[in-house]
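Figure 3 (text version): structure tokens given as input.
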């Protein structure tokens, strides 16, 4: 049986290997795979998580245009699509306490950066982190190879999670 330390080291190494294509893909103009990156940082002064979700803009547009009968939706800075993006994020990003309470959060806005869109959220949080459940299923309804990486930093404790169509929710230990 593998020791917990070796298992954690292996998990971090595996996530870094999986993250490398994400990092390089956001720097290039094209991508043949589907990934997102979510950064969750706890701010002890405001007692809130500051959440940043980075999605490929063309993938986000594909998701927003699914089933649409109106004009094609394009995501750019200062557009009128914040309500659509917020609704999509609320469907796919959820944080639940260990007692089962869904934590409310505020959609702060979005910003385009080259071929990616950053989505900003703020979630008040004063509960214990252990046993909470995190859902990050963005774009898994569009791409069967979609993988969502979440980096969570809570009071200096860093955790890394990988989500996909088969594993849309993880428990925080």
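Below: residues designed for each position.
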């Amino acid at each position: 049986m593998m020791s917990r330390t070796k298992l954690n080291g292996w998990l971090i190494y595996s996530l870094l290997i999986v993250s490398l294509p994400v990092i390089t893909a956001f720097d290039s103009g094209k991508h043949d795979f589907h990934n997102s990156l979510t950064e969750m940082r706890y701010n002890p002064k405001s007692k809130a998580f500051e959440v940043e979700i980075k999605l490929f803009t063309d993938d986000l547009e594909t998701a927003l245009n699914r089933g649409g009968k109106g004009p094609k939706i394009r995501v750019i800075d200062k557009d009128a699509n914040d309500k659509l993006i917020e609704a999509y994020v609320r469907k796919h990003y959820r944080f639940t306490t260990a007692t089962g309470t869904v934590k409310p959060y505020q959609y702060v806005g979005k910003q385009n950066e080259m071929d990616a869109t950053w989505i900003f959220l703020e979630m008040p949080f004063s509960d214990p982190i252990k046993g909470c459940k995190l859902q990050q299923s963005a774009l898994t309804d569009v791409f069967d190879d979609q993988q969502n990486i979440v980096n969570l930093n809570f009071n200096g404790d860093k955790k890394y999670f990988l989500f996909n169509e088969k594993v849309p929710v993880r428990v925080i230990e």
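Residues 4-27 form the longest helix (24 residues).
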